[in-house]
Design brief:
Blueprint: H1 2-15, H2 17-38, H3 44-71
């Protein structure tokens, strides 16, 4: 499972464009789902720590999706 996530993130960052952004968004959605499952048991600092990688993945997806548009 970890290998699939790693491959999706690296391939999404390398490919760029809409396809790359979608690959990264799949990983962000999976991380969001895991955070949602653990949310009731977490305290505020732990919740923020769960949101940080999701926010980072969303930012990378945005850059991957937009950067291809700027290069073309």
């Amino acid at each position: 499972m970890v290998a699939i996530v790693l491959v999706l993130v690296i391939a999404g960052a390398v490919l760029g464009g809409v396809l790359g952004a979608l690959m990264i968004l799949v990983v962000a959605g999976f991380a969001g789902w895991l955070a949602y499952l653990a949310w009731p048991r977490l305290e505020t600092p732990e919740r923020l720590m769960r949101l940080a990688p999701i926010a980072l993945l969303l930012a990378v997806a945005l850059v991957a999706g937009v950067s291809h548009q700027l290069l073309v």
